[in-house]
Amino acid sequence: MNKAKVKSLVSENIVVVVLILLCIGFGTASNTFFSSRNVSNILSQMCTNALLASGLTYVIILGGIDISVGSVAGVAGIIASYAGLKFPNMGAPFAILLLVVTGILVGAVCGAINGVLIAYFDVIPMICTLSTMTALRGVAFIITGGQPVYGLPDSFSYLGAKRILPTESMPNGAVPVVVIFTVIVVVFMHVLLSRTVFGRHVFAVGSNRNVAHLSGINVRRVTMLSHTLCGVTAGLCGICIASKLQNGQPNAGDTYEMFAIASTVLGGTSLSGGSGSVARAMFGCAVIAVIKTGMDLLQIYSYWQNVVIGCIIILAVVLDMAQKRGRN
Amino acid sequence: MEPILQVKNISKEFPGVKALTDVSIDFYPGEVHTLVGENGAGKSTLIKIISGVYIPTSGQIFYEGKEMHFTAPGQAIDAGIAVIHQELSIAKDLTVAQNVWLGREKRKKNGLLDSARMNKETQDILDFMKVKLKATEIAGYLNAAQQQMIEIAKVISQNAKIVVMDEPTSSLSEHEIDALFEQVRILKEKNVSIIYITHRLKELTEICERVTVLRDGCKVDTMMVADVTEKQIVSSMVGREMGDYYNKHKHTQGKEMLRVEGLCRKGVFENISFTAYAGEILGFSGLVGAGRTEVMEAIFGAARLDAGKIYLEGQEVQLSNPREAIAHNIGFVTEDRRRTGLLLEKNIVENTSLPSLPAHKKALGFVNRAWEKEMANLYMEKLRVKAPNMYTILKTLSGGNQQKVILGKWLAADSNILILDEPTRGIDVNARSEFYALMNEFVENGGTIIMISSEMPEIIGVADRVIVMREGRISGEVTAEEINEQTLIGLASITSDAS
């Protein structure tokens, strides 16, 4: 392998390099960073963000954005909680089914609203989802009257809070159920994007809408479906939060969109569209999760964490644009 | 009389192309000097050099007797050379006055905009031009002709001594053209030197003093308009040696493939009827803007049709989007491959398979990756695409190879009717020759090609039959033996006998 190849390999996988460096950094600064408890924590905290990022990858590849995902998650969590109240004696499998179905339905409806507005009414994605973000957050507060939805059975929290496969150091289980669930969703989203005709069409529309249209692709339908998918993953994120908390919070998922967008962009999905990958976005999620827990371990004030995350997003976007310019 | 502007022995080379060779022209104040020539003759390159957009490879420019070295358009404007482009540069949300002073806004002593003064001075210019426009009107509400008046007002406000007008009449009606010529005469009275580009030869006798004919980047001659006829100008525009790299084949016309009747889109084209047969290359000739591309886009379902019928092999079809056209085995190689032809950031495989992926998908909608690799491989070999491998990103390929990939993409989609819009634009001679051979092979296997080309020699060298369009209508059809430049240019540009 020559120098140029190494260089391009590093620059293409910069997020992996950053992740390794961060782990080494935090690992030396804090002796509990690599403990199995902490690793398991990082993984379960990653999940909500990973779900959002897996759907966001689609709309960002299209050259769009969805900043309403946090609000969609909030609404989905509340509706799932109200649904859960109706079945006080449900078992864990039924609870999981109830949560997942509600998450998919609520998410699909919200995502489809964005999709219709963006694909068929040509509303700019940023403005459209900014509006739905505000409106859906309002809906969450109206439904609940501003109060959390309490009184859910324990089975409701199986998906979000339960761990399985106990070990000696972690008698309550080493693997959080939510991690398994997230892995299933993320793998599905990754395969859909990278291996199917629909996924290929997403890339084509994001690369050049005109070419896609003239190659017989239904650009509006692809846009509409991508936003619906993004809504579905946001809905699934919302039910995971509600399940973990065992209640429905009207402000759940607030500001999550920023972390999800940051993860996606860190994972190399270009904000100008056309390229990206769900798998790589997961590395972006890992970077964000490592930074957050690392800063927690080092007892860095949480307000500073927001400043750091904000700066990281800017850095990622500047690097992306610089790379684009270099290529042209 | 001293010339105000002299270009002397100007040459301009681009990588692989010599756009201008040793061109010398004198321009005089108070005169309209027209540049004529076919597309690619070097007119645009010359005006870009005069206006400072391009720097000549060699040669000199003398302006008011002094040698000038423009390195940016701003310098030419400051010196008094203004250009009115074919595509008007009007900010639609601003007022007439704001457009006139755009970038040169007048200020008061306190640094704020002096709108009152700009409005007044603009109004004075408009009144001087005898144009019924208000300085405070929003430009976007005005029609093309009125917007052009803004450009002229701008030129007057700049006190330009030389005004370049690039096909100013191409989007105007007869009546509006008269109004424009009135302004040209006013500019002439102000002793402005006007460099005028047009394809409409009959305009020459109305406003021009001198005409320079360019051909293949060389100056053929400068003549006084009063001394020559349209026919003489046409014959000096043509008469080039035609290389045999077209490798013209005589094809045998097969069955009827595509027939259109009375196609119409209001204000763009009307009453378009023609038939294309299997085993022929049907050329579409005409000037840029004659409506050829728009007709083809409409047939391909990519643009609206107001009226008309489309028949494929005798059956009437509705093609309301490109998907349906592709399903009927029509392929469309667009004029601008970077903007509408290719996914530049994607590789050869992804580009080749794009239109035909849905037809070859596997269960559950999975991409048939073995099939698409096979296709990419097949057409890379068949079309001799020069690339390191099939995962090469398209934008790293040369224009000729990019064009071959586009052709491959439509062949992989089993197209039997190919619409090629300016297929060899920006491609070097060797790649062209290869491309023509591939076109011949395609029709000899029973395919139909409809080729739009603005280059006369290409149309003559390749097409079996030529339809000429002018101003949105078919102005004539020419078959095998009669295809020559005089006939085609006549049908495309001489409007005198028609009006």
Summarize the structure.
The complex is a heterodimer of chains A (328) and B (499). With 328 residues, chain A is mainly alpha-helical. Chain A contains 14 helices and two strands, in the order αααααααββααααααα.
- CATH topology type of the largest domain in chain B: Rossmann fold
Helix content of chain B: 25-40%
The amount of beta strand of chain B, in percent, is 15-25%
Which value, in Å, is the CA radius of gyration of chain A?
A: 20 Å
- The residue fraction in helices of chain A comes out at over 70%
Which structural class do you get from the secondary structure elements of chain B? alpha/beta
Overall mean confidence score, pLDDT of chain A: 92
- How many β-strand stretches of chain A? 2
Total count of helical runs of at least 4 residues of chain B: 17
N to C succession of SSEs of chain A: HHHHHHHEEHHHHHHH
Give the helix/strand layout:
The complex is a heterodimer of chains A (328) and B (499).
Chain A lengths: L2 H10 L1 H16 L6 H26 L7 H17 L6 H29 L4 H20 L13 H4 L1 E2 L10 E2 H19 L1 H11 L1 H6 L4 H27 L10 H11 L11 H20 L4 H26 L1
Antiparallel strand pairs in A: 1-2
Helix pairs in contact in A: 2-13, 3-8, 3-9, 3-11, 3-12, 3-13, 4-5, 4-6, 4-11, 5-6, 5-11, 8-9, 9-11, 12-13, 12-14
Chain B lengths: L4 E10 L2 E11 L4 E5 L6 H8 L7 E6 L2 E3 L4 H7 L1 E4 L11 H5 L14 H14 L15 H14 L4 E5 L7 H16 L3 E5 L4 H6 L2 E6 L2 E7 L5 H8 L18 E10 L3 E9 L2 E7 L5 H8 L7 E6 L2 E3 L4 H6 L2 E4 L3 H5 L6 H6 L15 H14 L16 H14 L4 E5 L7 H16 L3 E5 L3 H7 L2 E6 L2 E7 L5 H9 L6
Parallel strand pairs in B: 3-8, 3-9, 6-7, 7-8, 13-18, 13-19, 16-17, 17-18
Antiparallel strand pairs in B: 1-2, 1-4, 4-5, 9-10, 11-12, 11-14, 14-15, 19-20
Question: Can you walk through the features of this model?
Answer:
By secondary structure, chain A is mostly helical. Chain A has a domain at 33-254. Chain A is built from 14 helices and two strands; from the N terminus they run αααααααββααααααα. Chain A has helices at residues 3-12, 14-29, 36-61, 69-85, 92-120, 125-144, 158-161, 177-195, 197-207, 209-214, 219-245, 256-266, 278-297, 302-327, and strands spanning 163-164, 175-176. Chain A has a two-stranded antiparallel sheet with strand order 1-2. The longest helix of chain A has 29 residues, at 92-120. The model of chain A has no long low-confidence stretch (mean pLDDT 92). Chain B has two domains: 5-237, 3-Layer(aba) Sandwich (Rossmann fold), CATH 3.40.50; 245-493, Rossmann fold (3-Layer(aba) Sandwich). In chain B, α4 (115-128) crosses α5 and α13 (369-382) crosses α14 (399-412). Chain B has helices at 43-50, 73-79, 96-100, 115-128, 144-157, 174-189, 202-207, 230-237, 292-299, 322-327, 337-341, 348-353, 369-382, 399-412, 429-444, 456-462, 485-493; strands at residues 5-14, 17-27, 32-36, 58-63, 66-68, 81-84, 162-166, 193-197, 210-215, 218-224, 256-265, 269-277, 280-286, 307-312, 315-317, 330-333, 417-421, 448-452, 465-470, 473-479. The model of chain B has no long low-confidence stretch (mean pLDDT 88). In chain B, a hairpin with a 2-residue loop joins β19 and β20 (473-479). With 499 residues, chain B is α/β, with parallel strands linked by helices. In chain B, the strands form four sheets. A six-stranded mixed beta sheet of chain B has the order 6-7-8-3-9-10, with helices on both faces. In chain B, strands 16-17-18-13-19-20 form a six-stranded mixed beta sheet, with helices on both faces. A four-stranded antiparallel beta sheet of chain B has the order 2-1-4-5, with helices on one face. The interface between A and B is medium-sized, with 22 and 30 residues.
